Each structure stands twice: as C-alpha cells, then as structure tokens.
Amino acid sequence: MVSSPNIPDIVIGRLPIYLRALTQMSQQGQTFTSSHELGQRLGISSAQIRKDLSLFGDFGKQGTGYQISHLLTQLKQILQVNHEWPMIIVGAGDLGRALAHYRGFVSRGFRVVGVFDNDPAKIGMGNGDWQVYGMDQMVSFIHKRRVKIAMLAVPAETAQEVSDRLVDAGIRAILSYAPITLVVPSGVHVQYIDPVMHLQRMTYYLKSDER
Amino acid sequence: MVSSPNIPDIVIGRLPIYLRALTQMSQQGQTFTSSHELGQRLGISSAQIRKDLSLFGDFGKQGTGYQISHLLTQLKQILQVNHEWPMIIVGAGDLGRALAHYRGFVSRGFRVVGVFDNDPAKIGMGNGDWQVYGMDQMVSFIHKRRVKIAMLAVPAETAQEVSDRLVDAGIRAILSYAPITLVVPSGVHVQYIDPVMHLQRMTYYLKSDER
DNA sequence: TAGATTGTTAATCGATTAACAATC
DNA sequence: TAGATTGTTAATCGATTAACAATC
C-alpha cells in the first residue's frame, strides 16, 4: 500500500522511530521481531505498534511476528525514503558546516547537494557531494537541481526572509534550526530543531537544589 | 507557584514554546499580549494557552490579557531557567564543536562549561567558557562542577556506554544527538535530536513525483 | 460604562490500551 | 498440535475546544 488517507500525523511521527530501530536490529543480524519486542525497546505499547502498522497494511504474521527486511521495505516506501532526496543547507556557519559534514544522511534517504552563504571567504569550500555557493545562486540552483528540501541554519533575524525565498523557489520542506516560528504557505512543511527547548523541558523535572 | 503536581508532560513541552515567543515579543518592545494573539502566532488555540497557563497560576487579567514581563518571569521560574545551568558536551567532532560555539544557550538558561573527547589533538581547544578535556577527566569534572546536564554528540556505537558513565557520575538530563534509544535509570531524563527523523516525517507528505 | 479577555466547566474529539478471535 | 502473535474491536483514557460567567 503506497499511501493511505486519513492517517493521523502523530502516527506518521512514529514511523521514523520504528524505521530507525528496525534498521538497527537488521544491522545486528536479526531477521524477525514482534510488536512486543519493538515496543519494549522503544517504550511504546505493543498494541500501539500493531495498530499503527495495520493502518498501512498487514505486515505481520500470527505466531511469528514481523519479518524485519519486509517491514523496512514497506516503511521506507510509506515514508518515501526508498529513493534519495537531494537537500540544500542555507547558512555555512558552525552549524551549517556540521550538518554538511554529517555522515548519517545518505544511508537514510537524503544527500546534501549544496550549501549557501553570503560570506565570500566560504564560497567554494566543499567535498564530493556539495560546495558552498553564494546566496545569489540559491534560487537557480533549486530550480536546476529540482531540490524540494532545505535545512535552515541562518540567524533568527534572517530566517523568515530566507524561508520566503526558499518557498518561492520551490522548496516544499524546511528543517529549521532558527529559534523562531516561520510563516509559510499551506502545502509547505516545516519542522523545527531547537536544542534549548529540549533542555528547558528537562530542567522542569530536575530538583532545583541540584542545580 | 514554584511547582505543581500532576501537570501533563505535553503541557510542559509547550511552555518552552510560549517562553520563546514571549521573549521575542518582549525584545520587540511589546508589553502585553493575549491568549488569542499568542495562539495565532504559534498555531495553538487560545483556549489551550489559557488552560495550560492556568495550571500554574492566574497570570492574566480579564480585558487586558497577560503582562509579558510577568509571564516571562513566571515561566522561567516554572521551567527553572531563571538561573543558569552548567552543561557539558561529550564528543568534539563537527557537531560537538558546533554546539560548543553556539551563542544561543546563555541567554536562555544554559552555559557550556566543558567538552570531552578522546582525540589528543583536540584536547586544550576552547574559549572563555570551556575547553576540551580527555574523556578520562569527565567523571571528576562532573562531580567537581556539579554538572547535571550533558549533551551527547558521539557516534551511535559508543553512545550507550558514554551515557552509562554520565549517569554514574551524576548527570540527570541528557540531550542526545546519537540516533539510538538510550537505556537509562528512571529519574534520568533524555531528549533526542535526530534531524533525519524530522526529514522523514516531512517526506511522507511530499508528492513522490516531485522528488 | 462598554468592550475585551480571562479562568473554568462541560462537551467533544482523538488517541491509547485491553482483550481476544483468528491463524500462522 | 500447542504456543505465539497478529489485526481489530470496544472500552478507556486523556487532551482539546467551545462557551460563558466573571471581571478588569
């Protein structure tokens, strides 16, 4: 089943978690798993895992559970990461460069194909996959390479403006590291990563006398 | 009100979002806001914002809304970021160094005070706040500086082992960038950042003919 | 005062879980 | 077969929203 209607977004959010755990199991040589085992490992109930997966098809077998390789194939297809997505990074500061050098994208469906920054000193840096271009080349690059995904690693002050340009150029998904809420047209997807928000969520639970 | 019982975790997760937006409003010179305005900005219903905040106290006024400075003070107190938390980073690769150089921690309640790595070539690097130490000094450093929070930027293969050592040394909150689920004792908090999971969540919604 | 907006209740909505027949 | 585990239903649980009296 390629795509089903009316799947809750909260379920979609769990599929990459399943995919990640299954990949790890597979790498360790495991060939079958059960909803119970997977749930134990992830802190999710087995009923929830079965229910989530059954929204997309009957991937398991009574008595034996799920064949990991088959489930991996199915999940990658559902999430559309069975083929590689080209991706650009905007901002070649510390964070942008760390992302550009990150080795974990390719095996999971993504490849950085370009980095954009205004600093002339950075233009031309790169590796086999990407190099740093000036911001003035961003829009034509997106068109030419048909890029649909961008990672945003620019300061908060310019993030909205850059986002507007990305959307105009055809970008449909933005992973933003800028700590502000972006305004985008419907149909454009945005996800945010802000480490401080995760930290603040944890300090709530820490005893203050331990600070 | 310092701390209330039985607050759902999902509410705690929204408080940093409110805090971030209110900080931005405050920086732009705004002194009052309403649940409606804040909700519009964040894509959250006004009823939910009022309900969330009312779990901790009566911070608003009928007719006029919320005084931003007062609400900021309260939220910082609730999240315990009205004082600064010292933090260490384990792993001085591209990501660890990008985090160590990130300017956004201090103004929001956190300060990097040390970075740990096994590579002798990296030891001694640093700035006014932190320098890179060998892993063999990690445990004593955590004790001496009474550090409770660590950011984990090591490869997936060593993440669990490092996590165990951190917890033994007294770390109570871990922000992990390693793409595996860590096993920690109850009472230790873990949050995960994995950019690929965010990307995969978005590709589900992208039309495949646009790839 | 009149208008605006809170805090809170009750209703609604949606997500999770328990349980089990089906079946490998 | 006997044991294990799925997919699914119904019940439970929890979160969100609508509505409004209170009141600034």
Summarize the structure in words.
With 211 residues, chain A is α/β, with parallel strands linked by helices. Chain A folds into two domains: 9-79, Winged helix-like DNA-binding domain superfamily/Winged helix DNA-binding domain (Arc Repressor Mutant, subunit A), CATH 1.10.10.10; 85-197, NAD(P)-binding Rossmann-like Domain (Rossmann fold, 3-Layer(aba) Sandwich). Helices cover 41% and strands 16% of the residues of chain A. The first copy, chain A, has eight helices and nine strands. Chain A has a six-stranded parallel β-sheet with strand order 6-5-4-7-8-9, with helices on both faces. In chain A, helix 7 (156-169) links the parallel strand 7 and strand 8. The longest helix of chain A has 19 residues, at 9-27. Chain A is globular, with a radius of gyration of 20 Å. The relative contact order of chain A is 0.09. The mean pLDDT of chain A is 95. At the A-B interface, helix 1, helix 5 and helix 8 of A face helix 1, helix 5 and helix 8 of B. Chain A binds a DNA duplex (24 and 24 nucleotides) through helix 3 and strand 2.
